[in-house]
Amino acid sequence: MIQVKNLSRQYGKFTAVDSVSFDIAGGEVVGLLGHNGAGKSTIMRMLSGYLEPSSGSISVNDVTLENDPDDVQQTLGYLPENLPIYPEMMVADYLDYAATLKGIDSSKRSAAVREAIIATDLEARALDITGALSRGLKQRVGVAQAILGSPRLLILDEPTNGLDPGQTESMRQLIRKIANRATVILSTHIMQEVEAVCDRVLVLSNGKLILNGLLADLKASDNMLLRTCDSVAELPRYLAQLPQVSTASRTQCDDNHCDYLITLRSGTDHDTAANNICQTVVNAGARLYSLQPVVRDLDTIFRQATTLTETSDAS
Predict the structure, then answer these.
(1) How many CA within 13 A on the CB side of residue 128?
(2) Are 100 and 109 in contact (CB under 8 A)?
(3) Of 83, 85, 166, 281, which is most buried by a Cβ count within 10 Å?
(4) Coil, strand, or helix at residue 48?
(5) SS3 sequence, 144-182?
């Protein structure tokens, strides 16, 4: 769907985006993360065709943005962080105007506006003046203009910025619904948004892409937590003898149970390891209370990746 190769953008001597490359498949929901100033919005603007790269290339469905910008832009929708909405216009009129700017044929314009209004649950607000809408409803209008014409690629820059918890959840539901028919790139600095709706994560730091992976894979770790009874003192030694186990250490014990942190060897199949651990506990004569993987949260993953990069850059 999208191929980005060696994308860079300079402002004078300052490099905002530094040789970034990634691919995004059709139907993916990808989160673009980074601190303020990391280059997220610059990449969004280049992907949308609003800003020209200093070097590198962007292709959508094998069409290069530089060679055929009109063709590419007709397949995408873009919600910038600060969408200009004319406060004196009604919602339906504003969307009709946006559809005209997008080049949607006049014979299809009314149907496109109606479809966008229904998709964003704005039917009851279609005749409201945009200037009188709440922040959350204005964001919905922004998404509605982005999905006019049923684009195959949707770029959302900070879509929940300034929303209250209820409005944020409504926006998440809307993004999930849109993702059923379009590839979505979500640029944000809010980890909860990415965890709630994204399949994959791209992390930027100082204009460089430092992490690119499936969210489920990034959150997984080689650690497991085991809880058993405290009747077998030699259990850590038995566990450490398993070929899949690197270390097994008792972390806590009381009168009723013992907890163990088990670190698996790199590349180990977790299901095989779990089966062998359970059999070892039972064969040792201990009671198996629970065995579960240790899952890292996205905030930890982000901090580790950015801290490591900043330390490397400083040295």
Answers:
(1) 15
(2) yes
(3) 281
(4) helix
(5) HHHCCCCCCEEEEECCCCCCCHHHHHHHHHHHHHHCCCC
CA distance 13 to 194: 32
The pLDDT of residue 308 is 59
pLDDT of residue 96: 96
- Which residue, among 244, 243, 228, has the nearest Cα to 284 in the 3D structure? 228
- Tokens for 165, please give them: 């918890």
CA angle 285, 290, 294 (to 5 degrees): 130
Question: How buried is residue 52: exposed, middle or buried, by Cβ count under 10 Å (0-12/13-18/19+)?
Answer: exposed
Provide the whole-model pTM.
0.77
Q: pLDDT at position 313, please?
A: 59
Q: Which two tokens stand for residue 105?
A: 């044929």
Burial class (CB in 10 A: 0-12, 13-18, 19+), 88: exposed
Per-residue pLDDT tens over the stretch 115-124: 999 988 899 9
Kindly give, in sequence order, each residue whose CB lies less than 8 Å from that of residue 7, ignoring residues fewer than 6 positions away: 17, 19, 20, 21, 43, 46, 53, 55, 56, 57, 58
Kindly state the DSSP code that residue 13 receives in the 8-state scheme.
Answer: T
- Placement of tokens 């994959």 in the chain: 200
The conformation of residue 6, written as its DSSP 8-state character, comes to: E
Distance in angstroms (rounded) separating the CA atoms of residues 290 and 228: 7
Predicted local distance difference test score (pLDDT) of residue 310: 56
Class of residue 74 by CB neighbours under 10 A (exposed 0-12, middle 13-18, buried 19+): middle
Pairing of the two strands 76-79 and 2-11: unpaired
Residues 261, 249 contacting (CB under 8 angstroms):
yes
Percentage of the chain beyond pLDDT 90 is 50
